Known about the structure:
Strands 1-2-3-4-5 form a 5-stranded mixed β-sheet, with helices on both faces. The protein is an alpha/beta fold. Strand 2 and strand 3 form a beta hairpin. The chain has helices spanning 3-55, 69-80, 91-100, 147-157, 168-173, 219-233, 239-250; strands at residues 111-116, 119-125, 130-136, 174-179, 214-216.
Amino acid sequence: MDMGAQSNVKLCGEVIEKLTAWNAHRNQTFRHDLSEVIQKWRVIKAEQDEKNKQYGHLFNPLEAIDIGETTHSQLLGDLLNPNGEHGQGPLFLHVFLEGLGVPNPADGKWQISIEDGRVDICLWRSSPPSVIIIENKSNWAVDQENQLYRYWYHNIYKPYPYDDYSTAARKLTFQIIYMPPTAGKRPSENSLQRPKELDLLGLPENLNEAGVTVKVFTFRDHVADWLEKCAGLVPQTNARLRTYLQFYIELWS
């Protein structure tokens, strides 16, 4: 073997030796760091377990239930219902409507329907005329074709066929609320389009042309904030309702 070949073999040997030593050191360091992480995790878990034993802060029975959109609509609808079993009358409803900017929410008698005619939740009163449509997308469901336009037509336009829904007053008294988990989901353009069977009625081609604004009212921000306000208004003595509201809030935090 010539001198050049011997030199290359020696160099390769040195490189392999250094790589082997470096790899052994890296593995040792990794095992040491991993051991520290595991130890810290055990300490934190023990602290959390003891805290949960004393205060139950990790316990939420609603998280153990697979709650679908229909059930969410029923839960929300009961809270919004002035005759709901929560026993607070129209209090929660008025807080909700105030958050939407509905004028004089305490005036008139509000009625509510849940999962009726495919509309998840509908709130309305005859005097002053007002309709609030809530489209619940708590489980990220895909919009149906012409969905929001149909709801507007059947629940707002037909009962109150005004020429102009773009005025400030009517935008507040007639609303469509789109309710996804977060602001990452928005109404599809197709859901705002007029269905073909209504083409001959001379109606606007889409809700934007009709002057209708669909409001995005998310569970994580808006619904959770509304529930927080409601919980703050419940008497301290009503621990059952206050706890229930807190459980529901935690689903979206």
